[in-house]
Design brief:
Helices cover 37% and strands 25% of the residues. The protein is of the alpha+beta class.
């Protein structure tokens, strides 16, 4: 179970559901991928990054936070597992959104947060996302476990 962000190129007036419901693969963008990885390493720390490359698909995982960035079939997705809560969740969500903003800048795609039902660019306070991390941690009894600051 993870907190997910999706990216799409929307036409004027097109809904997020329509934009995200594409059926045909898009052309991959290895230059954008390389730029996202380079900048994400600066944000997240290079030592904890694992890259899996099987062109035209690429995946980057940050082992400490669990943040994952995927460029599959020309599309972009991100996720972070609900490992953390409280202040640590706030830090992870902040990093997730920072990397999402760089994916938007570099790829030209718009990000969407389906948990909040809002474009990434409109999420100004990570508090609601952090509350979701806390709720999942409570539900699965993970408080005090992996990634915890307690």
């Amino acid at each position: 179970m993870s907190y997910d962000l999706y990216f799409a190129r929307r036409e004027p007036g097109q809904s997020w559901d329509e934009a995200l419901d594409r059926t045909e693969p898009l052309p991959p963008d290895p230059v954008a991928w390389d730029n996202v990885v380079a900048q994400a390493k600066e944000l997240l720390g290079e030592g904890d990054i694992r890259i899996v490359a099987y062109p035209p698909n690429w995946e980057m995982d940050h082992e400490t936070t669990g943040i994952s960035v995927n460029h599959w079939e020309g599309g972009w997705e991100m996720s972070a597992p609900y490992w953390t809560h409280g202040e640590e969740a706030r830090r992870v969500v902040g990093l997730l959104y920072e990397v999402a903003a760089l994916v938007e800048r570099v790829s030209g795609f718009e990000g969407y947060d389906p948990q909040l039902g809002r474009p990434v660019a409109e999420v100004t306070d990570p508090g609601r996302a952090v509350a979701m991390f806390d709720a999942v941690a409570d539900r699965f009894g993970r408080r005090g476990s992996v990634g915890s600051t307690m």
